[in-house]
Amino acid sequence: MRIILDGMGGDNAPAETVKGAVEAVKLIDDEITIVGKPELIEEELRKNGYYGDRIAIEPASDVITMEDSPVKAIRRKQDSSMVVGLNMVKEGRGDVFVSAGNTGALVVGSRMILGRIRGIDRPALASVYPDISGGHPGLLVDAGASSESKAGNLVEYALMGSIFTEKVWGIENPRIGLVNLGTEEGKGTSVTKDAFQRLKASHLNFVGNIEGRDVPAGVCDVIVCDGFTGNVILKLTEGVAMGVFKQVKNTIMAGLKNKIAALILKKDLYALKDSFDYEEYGGAPVLGVNGPVIKMHGSSTAKAVKSAIIKAVPYAREDVVGIIRQELLKIEECDESDYSI
Amino acid sequence: MRIILDGMGGDNAPAETVKGAVEAVKLIDDEITIVGKPELIEEELRKNGYYGDRIAIEPASDVITMEDSPVKAIRRKQDSSMVVGLNMVKEGRGDVFVSAGNTGALVVGSRMILGRIRGIDRPALASVYPDISGGHPGLLVDAGASSESKAGNLVEYALMGSIFTEKVWGIENPRIGLVNLGTEEGKGTSVTKDAFQRLKASHLNFVGNIEGRDVPAGVCDVIVCDGFTGNVILKLTEGVAMGVFKQVKNTIMAGLKNKIAALILKKDLYALKDSFDYEEYGGAPVLGVNGPVIKMHGSSTAKAVKSAIIKAVPYAREDVVGIIRQELLKIEECDESDYSI
Question: Which residues in chain A have their CB less than 8 angstroms from residue B269's CB?
């Protein structure tokens, strides 16, 4: 496998990106190509003491910034690290593209350069939902690729999320939950009501509607919602978890007696805080396009880059994209019967 | 002022409801009428040692349960505590109605019995968003009265929330935030984009789009969103906060050394947990109907009932409903000019 890494995208590129690649290459048998300005990337490789031959450089003179308008940037910045990297995957010169760059541009670029999988109306961004209650993390789809969704889009998200969590995470028969304002059938908007019926009739392991309070409780493996709701869920979870931690810290640090207790607990509480950390989770796949693409958090550190590269390997090797393609072909063939996903 | 209390609605009625009324009446100068089955309510009053004359009973033979379908229940259960109580407010026999009963039925009943305020397309349920980061609580509108909203509805929610937080909470020039998937102007769905422009052009103190992570950070006094998003926000906040606490507790209780520290911190940490508690916040107003109505949490205890009754007094006394009505009339009169809310 050859992993194509966007060397210039994200807040901490190229320093943290290259450092993450150097750390990752020690742990995998695969090769990495870093796309970007060669002199900058070479300098970072040297800084990290890397002189091996399993990290290559592909030159790209331009960068898509966080402020760039996605569609314009993909069209005009043809020699940007993102466009060059996506083209490498398209041309078969790489097996998976990993980037911490502009999210909108990565989704648009994946769709424009790699193309949508036949049968998929809208590609989605899947994000790892952190493990809050001590269960296990879930995959949230859509995390914000689209702001509005039709019922059919939600069903596509469920199907793609089910295949991804089964093949990449190794979860047997993944449980699919639909975010809604009540658990009862018949609750919600016209879109969620319609999606509920379609998911119920599908071959997926649909566990029904889930409410906001169920999302962090680990009741399902794939959390399905429109991109607006998904974006709010991810950011609100971060805000509430950090808010509660801040308050716990303030409580613990109030008064000498508490401070002594805090000293005892400090290490364990910090370990807990880390367990909510996105850096361990290895990035979010862009699902529904003809090639594996992984989006990392814009402020990814070397640790996050390393995790994303390691998790990218099974994504490419298990041919998740190919399986999604086949599943959709099956559905197309069966469309005249009463089979429905 | 006479507060009309639904004696039968909610999981802990009538026991906790009556107990809350007995505790509240000691702290206010106003009178309370409890609506419900007289023999049950009298028994609870006696249990709580109340023999005064500031709590009256209004008989109602029926109860709307949590499982009842809202519209059907309001139409058919004419002698339910909820319908009788709402009619008392309509007829001027009471100044505010407070209920822990079926939320959908209370919203539908308020609209059907009291009627919408002229100029309001959709009444909303406003809910107190707990103080997570140590700032102060906010008012979230809509908390789930409607599952879908148009831009005009969001502007109405903002206007009503602004008046409520100013008059009942005493916040000068309340800050209005619009929940969206990014802070920049131009982000979001067609509905939030349109609402953004209308709010920007209004006389309200609109602070712009807020993201999920800003919601618990106290950046605004009124959190405006559609009812689907509002429902997810409230329940997710509860789920994440409780999940983090559970994990903190597990961490603290792991090992003898930690347990000693835990003993020291226990009291303060429980006090913190209580600060996230809905019971202190005094219920959520149904806004946009011709009369003050307060919804309490379905599982309200006596403490929550007491808070709701105490907070209901300024809601009625400040004539928030009348002020909303006047503001909308002003807008109607100015509609031919370029004045817009």
Answer: 248, 251
CB atoms within 10 A of CB A209: 23
In this model, does residue B277 exceed pLDDT 80? Answer: no
Residue B269 backbone phi and psi in degrees, to 5: -70, -40
Confidence of residue B176 (pLDDT cuts 50, 70, 90): very high
* Closest B-chain CA to A215: B236
Angle at which helix A256-275 crosses helix B256-275, to 10 degrees, equals: 90
What's the pTM?
A: 0.87
ipTM of predicted complex = 0.86
Mutate one of B240, B246, B264 to test the A interface: name it (highest A CB count within 10 A): B240
The per-residue pLDDT for range A44-62, each reduced to its tens digit, is: 999 999 999 999 999 999 9
C-alpha distance from A15 to closest chain B C-alpha (Å): 27
Nearest to B195 by CA among B144, B158, B229: B158
CB contact (8 A) between residue A133 and residue B212: no
Given CB atoms, is A331 within the 8 Å cutoff of chain B?
no
- Burial of A193 by CB count in 10 Å (0-12 exposed, 13-18 middle, 19+ buried)? middle
Interface list for B 111-150 with A (CB within 8 A): 132-134, 144, 147-148
| A179: its two tokens | 């975010």
- The reply to whether residue A243 touches residue B216, judged by beta carbons under 8 angstroms, is yes
- The proportion of chain B whose per-residue pLDDT surpasses 90, expressed as a percent, equals 69
Please tell me the distance in Å from A213's CA to the nearest CA on chain B.
Answer: 4
SS (H, E, C) A287-319: ECECCCEEECCCCCCHHHHHHHHHHHHHHHHCC
Please give the mean pLDDT across all residues of chain A. Answer: 89
Q: How crowded is the C-beta side of B210, counted as CA atoms within 13 Å?
A: 26
Q: Is A76 in contact with A68 (CB distance < 8 Å)? A: no
Cross-chain residue pair B239–A215, CB shorter than 8 Å: yes
Backbone φ, ψ for residue A32 (5° rounding): -125, 135
pLDDT at A117: 95
CB under 8 Å to A20, separation ≥6 — which residues? Answer: A300, A301, A302, A303, A304, A305, A306, A308, A309
CA distance A329 to B261: 59
> Which of A68, A72, A187, A236 has the most B C-beta neighbours within 10 Å, making it the best mutation to test the interface with B?
A236
| CB neighbourhood size of B33 (10 A) | 20
Residue A267, chain B, CB below 8 Å: the answer is no
CB A289 within 8 A of CB A115: yes
Contact between residue B242 and residue B157 where contact means Cβ atoms under 8 Å apart? no
Residue B158 three-state SS: helix
Would you give the DSSP letter of residue B120? -
Q: What was the pLDDT predicted at B274? A: 65
Q: Write out B262-296 in H/E/C secondary structure.
A: HHHHHHHHHHHHHHCCHHHCCCEEEECECCCEEEC
**To the nearest whole angstrom, how far is the Cα of B298 from the nearest Cα of chain A?**
14
Test the B interface: residue of A213, A250, A258 with most B CBs within 10 Å? A213
Residue of A nearest to B253 (CA): A265
Measured in whole angstroms, the distance separating CA B4 from the mean position of its chain's CA atoms is 16
- The SS3 call for residue A190 is helix
Pick the more confident residue, A232 or B259.
A232
Distance between CA atoms of residues B82 and B96, nearest Å: 12
Contact indicator for A160, A124 with CB cutoff of 8 Å:
yes
